[in-house]
Design brief:
- The complex is a heterodimer of chains A (about 200) and B (about 210).
- Chain A is of the alpha+beta class and about 200 residues long.
- Chain A has 2 domains: about 130 residues; about 45 residues.
- Chain A contains 7 helices and 5 strands.
- In chain A, strands 1-2-4-3 form a 4-stranded antiparallel β-sheet.
- In chain A, helix 6 packs antiparallel against helix 7.
- By secondary structure, chain B is of the alpha+beta class.
- Chain B has 2 domains: about 130 residues, Alpha-Beta Plaits; about 60 residues, no CATH class.
- Chain B is built from 8 helices and 5 strands.
- A 4-stranded antiparallel β-sheet of chain B has the order 1-2-4-3, covered by helices on one side.
- The chains are: A alpha+beta (about 200), B alpha+beta (about 210).
- Chains A and B meet through strand 2, helix 1, helix 2, strand 3 and strand 4 of A and strand 2, helix 1, helix 2, strand 3 and strand 4 of B.
- Strand 3 of chain A pairs antiparallel with strand 5 of chain B, so a sheet runs across the interface.
């Protein structure tokens, strides 16, 4: 299934916005880029590897040849791409439960957006605007976002321990090893196939 | 710059797809049929360009109508959306795509309007940049690690887990000896290839 690869799901959505409203959305994105409360919320959720919002103004769909027919659009379009872990339902439920204010600020400028709560009309809105992925690649398919973060913590602790334990007596080494275990114990594990969800 | 988060670049490209009414198989369908045949592991185009964390290709048939009171409208061309998250700068990445995934890139983009081929790399880069749309807001959860660093870290995590499990209860001298050997072996072992689904069985070979 091209939307899913290992533990990652590729979601794409598109929604129309009246052009004057895109200026407001750009303003909010500017605020988020510089003050980052939305980014903090996404880091807290910790199941999104990468996500992006792209505003395509109605006159900015690329036209590369005189033979290519001109688009005559009334709306600008908001594209959203996400690489997340878990199932589609879990993702939308978590978004609606945790980030509903941020989501409302982003999508309220799109036509017919029902709000991110209650979740059922929100899901219907997403379904209507979702585009299927035709090809999806990830360099680490069996690793969720939390796996990646934990692995980097283990790597840093391992590098430190390897460096510091060099030349220690066996007894000192054993003590340092215990401290190393305490440091990494929450981050141990291995990657593998995702559980089957709905 | 909104296309970047830390050291990760978020590329979004919309390439208009050719439309020839007399064809039995439209260009958009031909792209979809070809994409279905591509491997999704390291043997695929983005596995070859090893700085790619995640990438997707999507055929956008049309915009979506959400119902009254909004107006129904349609695109005059279909678009191939290429979304990629990679390490480094755009020019280097596009050059690597053209030179290291030549066959796949050509087989996909030959269906797009204005595609100049990949033989002239500079022309290909210029073409892709004409199709690029600016990312308005970009988020990368881990934005300071390369693909290689992440693959290495995942390998270390799995190997260290196995090492700890298999060396419980050893005397300090035996534990130290085992760790030194393990550490040396781990350092000499290359990380798994991008796109690999090898896990525990890969790191077990280290012990």
């Amino acid at each position: 299934m091209p939307n899913i690869h290992g533990k990652a799901y590729a979601m794409n959505t598109i929604s129309p916005m009246k052009p004057w409203k895109t200026y407001i959305l750009r303003f909010f994105f500017f605020i988020w880029r510089h003050y980052k409360p939305l980014g903090d919320g996404l880091v807290e959720l910790s199941f999104i590897h990468f996500a992006r919002w792209v505003i395509v103004p109605r006159y900015s769909f690329p036209r590369l040849s005189e033979q290519q027919p001109n688009n005559d659009l009334r709306y600008d379009y908001l594209l959203f791409f996400s690489n997340f872990n878990g199932t589609w339902n879990q993702y939308i439920d978590a978004f609606s439960a945790v980030l509903f204010e941020g989501l409302n600020l982003i999508w309220r400028w799109s036509e017919k957006f029902p709000g991110s709560r209650p979740v059922t009309p929100f899901k219907n809105f997403i379904v209507r605007g979702q585009i299927e992925t035709d090809y999806y690649y990830t360099a680490y398919p069996y690793a969720a976002t939390n796996d990646v973060k934990a692995a980097h913590r283990v790597q840093a602790a391992f590098d430190d321990f390897e460096r510091l334990s060099n030349g220690m007596s066996a007894v000192k080494f054993a003590e340092a090893y215990q401290q190393f275990l305490v440091k990494v114990q929450r981050d141990l594990g291995e990657t593998g196939e995702a559980p089957v969800g709905t | 710059m909104s296309n970047q988060s830390g050291s990760i670049y978020g590329l979004t490209i919309l390439s208009p797809i050719q439309d020839e009414l007399h064809l039995e198989i439209s260009h958009s369908l031909a792209i979809r049929m070809y994409l279905q045949t591509l491997p999704i592991d390291g043997k695929g185009p983005f596995g070859k360009v090893s700085s790619t964390h995640m990438a997707r290709l999507v055929v956008l048939d049309d915009v979506v109508y959400f119902g009254m009171p909004s107006c129904e409208e349609h695109l005059q061309s279909k678009y191939l959306i290429f979304e990629s998250n990679f390490d480094g700068d755009l020019e280097t990445y596009l050059k690597r795509l053209a030179t290291e995934a030549t066959e796949e890139v050509h087989s996909i983009w030959k269906h797009c309007v204005g595609y100049p081929g990949v033989t002239d790399v500079a022309a290909f880069i210029a073409y892709m940049k004409r199709c690029q749309v600016e990312t308005t807001l970009y988020f990368a959860d881990v934005n300071d690690k390369t693909v290689q660093q992440t693959l290495r870290a995942l390998q270390t995590q799995s190997a260290v887990t196995s090492f700890i499990e298999k060396n419980q209860g050893k005397s300090p001298a035996d534990l130290q000896k085992a760790f030194v050997e393990f550490s040396k072996h781990l350092g000499n072992t290359p990380p798994p290839k991008p796109g690999s689904i090898e896990g525990k069985e890969f790191t077990d070979k280290l012990l």
